[in-house]
Amino acid sequence: MKKSELVFIPSPGLSHLIPTVETAKLLLLRDSRLAITVLLLPPIFKDPNAEIYSISTSISLTPDVKSPTSSQKSKIPASLLGHQHHTSTRAKLSSILFPPAASFLHNSRWDIILILTLAAVVLDIFCTEFISVAAEFDLPAYLFFTSGAICLGLCQHLVSLRFDHNEDVTRYKNAEVDLPVPYFSLPVPAKVLPAVMVDEAFLPEIYLSHFKRFSEMKGVLINTFYDMEPYAVESLLSDDKTPEIYPVGPVLKVESKCFDEDDDVKKWLDDQPENSVVFLCFGTLGIFDEKQVREIAKGLENCGSRFLWSLKKRENSELEREESEYFEGFLERTKGSGRVMGWAPQAAVLAHPAVGGFVSHCGWNSILEGVWFGVPMATFPMHAEQQLNAFYLVKELGMAEVITLDYQMDVTGEKPPESVGWEVIAGAIRRLMASEGGSGMKRKVEEMGKKAREALVEGGTSYNALTLFIEDVMKNRD
């Protein structure tokens, strides 16, 4: 039996890795002619939730998904991943294309020999340097973009400003201006632009160079669905310089680690009224400084809602000591109305009927999960493209309350962000948890969640887009 093999190369971070693996599994379910290898590059830095990373890199891979890994840790920026692993990736592709004699894949369940034909390479946006490796073997390269169409469109717009019009885009750093961006129906405030694209401290020229290679791709899979971003998707589709676009999302791992039967947090949630709990979770890297943690705690104490707060530990710090330093009796005073925990099974929490609101860092995967489970959000972005996502949620979709739109983590040490005050936090949570869901907000999110499910079933927009992608891949082996 002859199979067409795809090689996926994701960035080594949870927000990139998990949707990549889930997409690979989805493709295998859709078409038995496919086989997939996921090349796992070494982590860029030590993850404060390393044990979660370990779990995620081994998620229930089917026999046709192979995931060779490296035990070494990479200490380079994400933007240089391709350069660092150029040689090893070339060697891996060569071994797939030209296997040793008689080294075919034997499937004992069916008692047949599977002959693999490498059909394409599917790259993460920070692995675009591997386009040249694919070209050496005369293989087409596709992009799997793990964020939304709005982010992809904005980055293409900044690439055009920088390389086509020779504009210094760093002038937009913290600028008090609104930009007309073709992929948005509203002007975009400069303060919500991704810092890595406009802040000289992040070497934006390097990051933009990845997006500059966008036009070299044969096609682009985007983890979104048409009804979530119709304006951006239509703009990308109508752009003559844009490769073929395949909005195939939402690709989620909604069955990710659920509660254990004896989990006391689940038992606590089971005892709460429906839609009464606000859930706070800020992603793998969502670690605040002491002052901001105190403000969040005071906001929760004064908002009048039950809460469940996923609070990440600072490195080299014990949660018990942090509780003593930060909270000053907060845990004892809110014992009946709230819970504070470390890592949380986010999808399982959002799926629980007691949860009626979600205070989020606005990472794209978290937004899609919130939509999937019909939970309205409040925005507290921290880094990457999260400020842009927050702006889109609030201003264009009306599916979130504003806590902040332009908070930026202090990763350079240049200037710590100003803390968001507890009054602002408490007020936003009150609006979020209001019975009407904030001007029909809950209804809007639930309707979008319904559209997300419709997009994935046969005949849906994402289902059809994935079909078109598979058909294009199959042409590559002819």
TrEMBL record:
Major enzyme class: transferase
A family per Pfam: UDPGT
One annotated GO molecular function: glycosyltransferase activity
Entry's EC annotation: 2.4.1.-
Signal peptide span: none
TM region(s), chain numbering: 112-135, 141-163
This protein's UniProt keywords: Glycosyltransferase, Membrane, Transferase, Transmembrane, Transmembrane helix
Organism, scientific name: Salvia divinorum (Maria pastora)
InterPro entries for this protein: UDP-glycosyltransf_plant, UDP_glucos_trans, UDP_glycos_trans_CS
Name of the protein described by the UniProt record: Glycosyltransferase
